[in-house]
């Protein structure tokens, strides 16, 4: 279930960024489009604002990820600081950024996988996307 939630969350992330799914040189699937930071067309990564390791309960929260290229993800976003914080606040607004920060400090939070799945499907429906299967052909 959790892997399928990641598939859905990535669809939300990359659809919002108007990226497209492509077959890579190695035969896998990747997402290609404009990096939400540098605006260059590149392969994109599912880049979390509050880290997945420290905040697994925010892994699938649509406010908690953006589509960044590898360079911006690792050489800009992960360095953190005032510039990255101002950027994300400009993108999602102070109220949503503050909510994420509060949720990140909430310990012992358990997520309901079915509720997360329905929330992600609702996000996709609002963007006009109706994914029926994950990347391995399993029903979502
Ligand atoms: Zn970039």
Notes on the protein architecture:
The chain has helices at 2-16, 70-75, 82-92, 94-104, 113-126; strands at residues 20-23, 29-34, 41-48, 65-69. The protein has one domain (2-126). The radius of gyration is 15 Å and the shape is globular. Strands 1-2-3-4 form a 4-stranded antiparallel beta sheet. α1 packs parallel to α5 (113-126) and α3 (82-92) packs across α4. Helices cover 41% and strands 16% of the residues. A hairpin with a 6-residue loop joins β2 (29-34) and β3. The chain is α+β, with helices and mostly antiparallel strands and 140 residues long. The mean pLDDT is 90. It is built from 5 helices and 4 strands, in the order αββββαααα. It binds zinc ion.
What features would you highlight for this structure?
binds zinc ion, single chain, 4 strands, 140 residues, 5 helices, alpha+beta
């Amino acid at each position: 279930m959790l892997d399928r939630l990641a598939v859905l969350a990535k669809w939300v992330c990359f659809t919002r960024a108007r990226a497209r799914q492509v077959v890579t040189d190695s035969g896998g699937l990747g997402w290609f489009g404009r990096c939400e930071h540098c605006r260059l067309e590149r392969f994109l990564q599912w880049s979390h604002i509050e880290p997945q390791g420290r905040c697994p309960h925010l892994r699938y929260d649509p406010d908690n990820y953006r589509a960044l290229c590898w360079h911006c993800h690792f050489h800009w976003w992960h360095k953190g600081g005032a510039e990255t914080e101002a950027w994300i606040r400009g993108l999602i607004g102070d109220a949503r950024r503050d909510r994420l920060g509060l949720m990140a400090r909430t310990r012992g939070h358990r997520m309901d996988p079915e509720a997360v799945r329905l929330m992600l499907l609702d996000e996709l429906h609002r963007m006009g996307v109706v994914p029926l299967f994950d990347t391995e052909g399993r029903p979502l």
